[in-house]
């Protein structure tokens, strides 16, 4: 029995070494496939990178132009606010001036208007009385 044990042991070692060799072959094969897929992935990433570089450059240029445009728009907005402020100030001054002129001019104008109306109504009454005196009285009945 002593001889069988070493043969069984040899057989077990042979099967184990065969299993290791097959495992290594399968692992090497899998690693080669993985390497091929990894190379395709790297190629796709490099192609994407090549396509993205011009896009990134254009995006930076657009952002820079947008920043410049925003700065100009802000400067023009500040100018418009200044113009509106000046216009508001002048409008307030003009309103104040019109109020002062109205306070000075309105009472005499209203008084003159009132006086002219009274003069016209007085003249109207005077002319009616004068014209009524010059007309002969009319008879109320018919003469037959």
Task: Quickly describe the structure.
The chain has 144 residues and is mostly helical.
Q: What oligomerization state is this entry in?
A: single chain
Q: Give the helices and strands as they follow along the chain.
A: H
Sheet-strand content, in percent, reads: under 5%
| Helix coverage percent | over 70%
What's the structural blueprint in terms of helices and strands?
Blueprint: H1 4-134
Report on the structure:
- This protein is mainly alpha-helical.
- It has one helix at residues 4-134.
- The longest helix is centred in the middle third of the chain and has 131 residues, at 4-134.
- The radius of gyration is 57 Å and the shape is rod-shaped.
Entry keywords:
mainly alpha, 91% helix, 1 helix, 144 residues
């Amino acid at each position: 029995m002593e001889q069988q044990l070493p043969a069984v042991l040899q057989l077990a070692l042979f099967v184990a070494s065969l299993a290791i060799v097959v495992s290594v072959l399968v692992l090497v094969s899998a690693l080669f496939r993985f390497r091929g897929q990894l190379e395709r992935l790297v190629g796709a990433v490099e192609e994407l990178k090549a396509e993205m570089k011009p896009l990134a450059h254009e995006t930076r240029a657009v952002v820079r132009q947008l920043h410049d445009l925003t700065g100009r728009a802000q400067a023009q907005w500040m100018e418009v606010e200044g113009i509106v402020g000046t216009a508001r100030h002048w409008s307030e001054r003009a309103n104040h001036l019109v109020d002062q002129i109205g306070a000075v001019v309105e009472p005499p104008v209203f008084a003159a208007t009132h006086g002219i109306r009274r003069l016209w109504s007085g003249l109207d009454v005077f002319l009616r009385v004068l014209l009524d005196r010059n007309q002969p009285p009319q008879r109320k009945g018919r003469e037959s």
